[in-house]
Amino acid sequence: MAEKQHIVSSSHLVSERAAELSELEFALILSGNAFNRWVVRCMRAAGVPDLSILDILVLHNVNSREREKSLSEVCFVLNVEDSHLVNYALKKLRKLGFVDGIKRGKEVHYGTSKEGRDLCQRYREVREACLIETFERLGVNHDEVGDVAKTLRAISGVYDQASRSASAM
């Protein structure tokens, strides 16, 4: 009987104890790159072609729930360790007029400007037309998508812990 072939990006990393983990990692690579490409192209279709994936994620996070957020809150929610990258994105978004900053004590809190909220709305319209309609046509089960999201969030915690362990070696 032939040994099961695993769909992986790096066969030399496949462990006999957890070959499926290598398959998951390859799926994460493919999904992550596809998602990043989608977000950037969706924003381009919404009218702003020069934002990076992180710029866009920061903009959406700042716009979320219509409440101002500090740099550390944005970093925490997006799970970005290097606050300088998020700070750079916030400065870029402020310069473009999509985000406002209000100093409170020693910290700056960020919120979206009217232009930023309008841009997020245009992004949503493109997302509805291109992504949501496709999901609906394919008959994707919303509950299953929610279950996958929960599993991926849990897996991110496992990778965070493994990262801390590797840093301590």
Commentary on this structure:
This protein is mainly α. It has a single domain (21-144), classed as Arc Repressor Mutant, subunit A (Orthogonal Bundle), CATH 1.10.10. It is built from six helices and three strands; from the N terminus they run ααβααββαα. The chain has helices at 19-45, 53-63, 71-78, 83-95, 114-138, 142-167; strands spanning 69-70, 99-104, 107-112. A three-stranded antiparallel sheet has the order 1-3-2. A hairpin with a 2-residue loop joins strand 2 (99-104) and strand 3. Helix 2 (53-63) crosses helix 4 (83-95). The protein starts with 18 loop residues before the first helix and ends with a helix.
**What is the number of domains?**
1
Q: Roughly how many Å apart are the termini? A: 40 Å
> What would the CATH topology be?
Arc Repressor Mutant, subunit A
Number of strands: 3
Q: Order of SSEs, N→C?
A: HHEHHEEHH
Kindly state the mean pLDDT as a whole number?
94
CATH hierarchy class name: Mainly Alpha
Please state the CA-atom Rg, rounded to the nearest Å: 19 Å
Q: Summary?
A:
This protein has 169 residues and is mainly α.
Features:
169 residues; mainly alpha; Arc Repressor Mutant, subunit A; 3-stranded antiparallel β-sheet; 6 helices; 65% helix; globular
Chain-wise SSE layout:
Elements: H1 19-45, H2 53-63, E1 69-70, H3 71-78, H4 83-95, E2 99-104, E3 107-112, H5 114-138, H6 142-167
Antiparallel strand pairs: 1-3, 2-3
Protein name: Transcriptional regulator
InterPro entries: HTH_MarR-typ, Trans_reg_MarR_HTH, WH-like_DNA-bd_sf, WH_DNA-bd_sf
Domain HTH marR-type: 52-116
